[in-house]
Amino acid sequence: MNIRARQLAGLSLWICTLICAPAQAALTRCEDTAGKVTYMQGECPGGTRAVREVSTSPAASSAEQRQAQQQSAAEARSAAQLKTEREKKERAEAAAERRAQAAASKRQQQCTKLKLHAQRLADQAQRATPAKQAQARQKAQRAADDYAARCQASR
Question: Is residue 65 helix, strand or coil?
Answer without folding.
Answer: helix
